[in-house]
C-alpha cells in the first residue's frame, strides 16, 4: 500500500472513532437512599442470622450481591428522629440539636445533605417517613407521613395539604417514589430519599401477608429470659416482649376465643381507626383462628405464654418486612428497566437496629449491639465491587460526607463523619478510625431506657449511664450477646481506663459540651 493509502485509512479510523457517541460522564451519580424504620440486621438474609433464613429478603439481598454489605455500621443515637438528623447533617446529636424524638423540631436552617445536593444541581426528593417535626427543607419535592405515620390508608403531608391515600403504606410509598422518578428531569442527577414506616411498631402486615409466617417457628434467642444481673438499666427498661407489649395493639390478640374484638389497644386511631369495615373483617378472617390457639395455653404457664408472644411478634414483624422487600425489588427493577443502574448509588438502611427478643426485648435505644448496629447495603456497579463487605467501624454520621464525596461535592468542614468512599472503591484505609462514639438522651421517656453514652472498639465496649453514675464494660469477643458486665472486675481496670481515655478523646473531637458529658 502506498503512503497516501495509509494516510487515508488512518484518517478514516480517526473519523470513525470521533463519531462514536460519547458515553455520558458518570461523575455525578444519582443517590437512591432507601431507609426502613426499625429494621434489624437479624431480619435481612444477606446478614445470615437464623431468623432471616426463615423469612428471607431476596430483594434487599440483591443489593449486597451487586455491591457491599456493611457489617459494622452503627448509629450515633439509637432512635428515629435523632438518627435521621445525624444522617442529614453528618453530625452527632448534640451538634445538630435533635437529641431526642420529643423536641420542638429539627432546625431546618442548618446545612443538610438535601440542601447541599440541591445547591450542586441535584433534584432532591423525599417520600415517606420524616419524623423530624419541622417541615423538610432542601427538597424540591416532599411528601411525608404525618409524624409516625399509619400502616393503613395513611395520611400524607405536603407543603400544601394533608391527604389520606387508600392502601397499604409500604406499597403507597413505593408507588409515589416510582411516580416521582417518572416525572423527574432526566437531564439532572437526583438525590431521592424513600423512607418506609415499616417495620415500625405496631407491625401491621399488608393484607396479602397476614398469614405468611403462621406455620413458621422462629428461634428463641438464648437470652430471651435474661435476668439482667449486673446491668441496672437493662433491668429497669419497659420494652419486654412478654411484659410490656400491649396484647391488642402489638400482639393483635382477641379478648376471648372466637370474639372479633382486640385486647388492650391504647392507640386504636392508628389501627382499626384507619381501616374500612371490610378491611377490619379481612383482618379478623386472617387472625381469628390463630388467635384462638392462644387460648389453648395454660395461663399459668408463663414460659409458654412468653414464647407464644415472641412467635406472634416475629411473625408480624417479618411479614411487614416482606412488603418492604417487595418494595426494594420494584425499585431495583425500575432502575434496570430505565437504564439507571450503572449511574446510581443505591443505599438500603434503617434508622437504627432493633431487638427481636434478645434480652427479652423489642424496641431499641440501648448501645447494645442489636439496636446500635444499622443494617447497611449499597450498590454502585462498576465502582463498588460486587459481593464485598466492609467490616470497618462506620456510623450514620458518615453517610452525608460519603455521599457528597462519591458525587464529587466538597464536604463541609464541620461535619463529624468521615467519607467511607475509599473503603467502597477499594482504596486503602489504613488510617480508618478504630473507635466510635454513641449517646442516647431520651430519658425519661417511653420504654424507660436511661440516658447513656459510650465508646465501642472492635472488641470492647464501654457504656456510661451518667445520671446514675454506672459503668458497663463488655468483651464482645467472649460475650457477644452482652450478658456479662465486666466493669470493675479484677484484671479489666486497664481496659476500662484506656476506653475512658478514648471516650473523652472522642467527646473532645466532637466538641460535646460539658452539660452532655
Ligand atoms: C412510638 C412507639 C414506641 C417507639 C417510639 C419511637 N409506640 O412511640 O414503641 O419506641 O415510637 O420509635 S407505638 O406503638 O405508638 O408505635 S421511633 O422509631 O420513632 O424512634
Ligand atoms: Ca426507628
UniProtKB/TrEMBL annotation:
Gene3D superfamilies: Alkaline Phosphatase, subunit A (3.40.720.10)
Keywords: Hydrolase
Pfam family, one: SGSH_C
Domain annotation N-sulphoglucosamine sulphohydrolase C-terminal: ranges: 357-509
Matches recorded under CDD domains: G6S_like
Family classification: Belongs to the sulfatase family.
Name assigned to this protein: Sulfatase
Source species: Belliella marina
Amino acid at each position: 500500500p502506498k503512503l497516501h493509502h495509509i494516510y487515508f485509512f488512518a484518517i478514516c479510523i480517526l473519523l470513525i472513532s470521533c463519531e462514536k457517541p460519547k458515553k455520558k460522564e458518570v461523575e455525578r451519580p444519582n443517590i437512591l437512599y432507601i431507609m426502613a424504620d426499625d429494621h434489624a440486621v437479624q431480619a435481612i438474609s444477606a446478614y445470615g442470622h437464623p431468623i432471616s433464613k426463615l423469612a428471607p429478603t431476596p430483594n434487599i439481598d440483591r443489593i449486597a450481591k451487586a455491591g457491599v454489605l456493611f457489617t459494622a455500621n452503627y448509629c450515633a443515637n439509637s432512635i428515629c428522629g435523632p438518627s435521621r438528623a445525624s444522617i442529614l447533617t453528618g453530625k452527632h446529636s448534640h451538634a445538630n440539636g435533635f437529641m431526642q424524638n420529643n423536641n420542638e423540631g429539627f432546625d431546618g436552617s442548618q446545612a443538610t445533605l438535601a440542601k447541599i445536593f440541591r445547591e450542586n444541581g441535584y433534584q432532591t426528593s423525599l417520600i415517606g417517613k420524616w419524623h423530624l417535626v419541622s417541615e423538610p427543607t432542601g427538597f424540591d419535592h416532599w411528601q411525608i407521613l404525618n409524624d409516625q405515620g399509619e400502616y393503613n390508608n395513611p395520611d400524607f403531608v405536603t407543603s400544601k395539604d394533608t391527604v389520606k391515600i387508600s392502601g397499604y403504606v409500604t406499597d403507597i410509598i413505593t408507588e409515589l417514589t416510582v411516580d416521582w422518578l417518572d416525572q423527574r428531569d432526566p437531564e439532572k442527577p437526583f438525590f431521592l430519599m424513600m423512607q418506609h414506616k415499616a417495620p415500625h411498631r405496631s407491625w401491621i402486615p399488608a393484607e396479602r401477608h397476614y398469614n405468611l409466617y403462621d406455620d413458621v417457628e422462629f428461634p428463641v434467642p438464648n437470652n430471651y429470659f435474661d435476668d439482667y444481673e449486673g446491668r441496672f438499666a437493662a433491668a429497669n427498661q419497659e420494652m419486654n416482649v412478654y411484659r410490656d407489649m400491649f396484647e391488642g395493639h402489638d400482639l393483635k390478640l382477641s379478648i376471648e376465643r372466637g370474639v372479633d374484638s382486640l385486647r388492650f389497644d391504647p392507640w386504636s386511631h392508628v389501627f382499626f381507626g384507619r381501616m374500612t369495615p371490610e378491611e377490619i373483617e379481612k383482618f379478623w378472617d386472617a387472625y381469628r383462628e390463630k388467635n384462638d390457639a392462644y387460648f389453648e395455653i395454660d395461663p399459668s404457664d408463663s414460659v409458654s405464654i412468653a414464647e407464644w408472644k415472641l412467635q406472634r411478634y416475629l411473625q408480624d414483624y417479618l411479614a411487614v418486612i416482606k412488603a418492604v422487600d417487595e418494595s426494594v425489588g420494584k425499585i431495583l427493577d425500575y432502575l434496570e428497566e430505565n437504564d439507571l443502574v450503572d449511574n446510581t448509588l443505591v443505599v438500603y438502611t434503617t434508622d437504627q437496629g432493633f431487638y427481636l427478643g434478645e434480652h427479652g426485648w423489642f424496641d431499641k435505644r440501648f448501645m447494645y449491639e442489636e439496636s446500635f448496629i444499622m443494617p447497611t447495603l449499597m450498590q454502585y456497579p462498576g465502582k463498588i465491587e460486587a459481593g464485598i463487605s466492609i467490616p470497618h467501624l462506620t456510623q450514620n454520621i458518615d453517610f452525608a460526607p460519603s455521599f457528597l464525596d462519591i458525587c464529587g461535592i466538597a464536604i463541609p468542614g464541620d461535619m463529624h463523619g468521615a467519607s467511607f468512599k475509599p473503603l467502597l472503591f477499594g482504596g486503602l484505609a489504613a488510617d480508618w478510625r478504630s473507635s466510635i462514639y454513641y449517646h442516647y438522651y431520651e430519658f425519661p421517656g417511653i420504654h424507660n431506657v436511661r440516658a447513656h453514652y459510650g465508646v465501642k472498639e472492635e472488641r470492647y465496649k464501654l457504656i456510661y449511664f451518667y445520671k446514675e453514675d454506672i459503668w458497663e464494660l463488655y468483651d464482645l469477643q467472649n460475650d457477644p450477646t452482652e450478658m456479662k458486665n465486666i466493669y470493675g472486675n479484677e484484671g479489666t481496670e486497664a481496659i476500662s481506663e484506656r476506653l475512658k481515655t478514648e471516650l473523652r478523646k472522642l467527646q473532645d473531637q466532637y466538641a460535646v459540651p460539658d452539660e452532655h458529658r
